[in-house]
Amino acid sequence: MNIQDIFKNNQNWVAEKLADDKDYFENLSKGQTPSMLYIGCSDSRVTAEEMMGVHPGEVFVHRNIANLVNNVDLNVMSVINYGVRHLKVKHVIVCGHYYCGGVKAAMQASDLGILNPWLRGIRDVYRLHKNELNCITDEDERYNRLIELNVQEQCINIIKTAAVQQAYYEWGLAVHGWIFDIKTGKLKDLNINFDKVLRNIMEIYDLNQKPSIEKI
Fold it and tell me: What residue ranges of the chain have pLDDT lower than 50?
């Protein structure tokens, strides 16, 4: 695409929005109150708003290679903190996708330079689940299963954070793990059980000092 086409597309988009609602951009400028925080992959084929059918202002979005939630990544941690503590979102979504290049790269035994420390997070997921993964003989099936497990582990990383634990207790914040199937265009819910995950990690990751786990 010619870069100048972007500006033409933008003008057409503005005209369409104003034709439907002359105050559209004036209202948009007044602030945002999204109910969802979406953490997804930077892959150009996976566009959050389009595949979810949502509009500007309805979802707070963060994207990085292979949708990782790394506790020392100030970018994603800041997004989670702002989305939860300031925007008061009700849902946090981690969305991976089949045939993810980042996950594929992490499965290769090769030196990828500056990508090595980033992809180590995915390789750690493989290490945690190697018994299951090594039993899968079909390479594509093993690859896509690692993509699912990576989403699962990133959801767990989110639940480990103080802001998310506090929001869970205060207004019932939910964490979801999804997979986007590029071949079909459909979303798959991995059905992350917040209560179960929290129970399993509370002994180590209880950051709110809740005295009674039975109340969960």
Answer: 209, 211, 213, 215-216
